[in-house]
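quick one, 272 residues, struct below
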Amino acid sequence: MKKIFIFLLAFTLLYSFQSCKKSDEPIVEFQTSAGLFKVKLFKETPQHRDNFIHLVKDGYFNDLIFHRAMKDYLIQTGDPNSKTASKNRLLGTGGPGYTINAEINYPTTFHKKGMLTAARLPDADNPKKASNGSQFCIIIGKQFTSEELDTLELNAYNRQLDKAWRIIVAKNREEITAISLTGDSLKLSNYQDSLIIQAKKLMNKEEVFFFTPEQREAYTTLGGAPHMDNEYTIFGEVIEGIEIAEQISLQAVDMNNRPLEDIRIISTKIIE
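---
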């Protein structure tokens, strides 16, 4: 009898420990003036996950507004300046005073509908793609046809080829000029063809963009924002209430895409 009691006690303690163990992918509930939605944070982006949990526990997001809403694209929040901002104030530059190193896991995660992605400054000021410490977006996006995705791939390929072409031309500028001065158009054309072959060989195959089967499936059914792929850190996903985010994205907005009527985050909490 004593052995059975000890076993049951050990089992109870183990179960309690496992039940209280911190989840690798916690779920956060957002109560907003437009309704409730829930997001799951990804374990693959631990810096963003842990920072987000810290902000939620501090009540950082409470009373902030969704300062950016764009139909078929996204909604954005997390600017602390929005808490007491007047109606005409331009928002989107505020934060907690720090950035988070990029944790881009492309193409494992991509910008399909419902993804939680960190906002950031443009590449010119932020070449390492570090994330704003608090601002984030929920992707709404739109559905694409297979033909539209083909066009996006081709455009990306041509941009990469043009980059390589410029490098090759710069290396061979003297020879190009010399042939041009001879007036031999056929020789110049043949030389240009040879340079194009060199440019294609120079292209970094890892940078040549192609959609994965998973991306094609998602973008042609759920929808999303493929032009954002591999550019921003995705650190979570809406698992309940995506229709609330869609509703916010359809609001009437001013010239800066700020909703004319403020939609606020009332409260946030970690529920799992």
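The chain has a mean pLDDT of 91.
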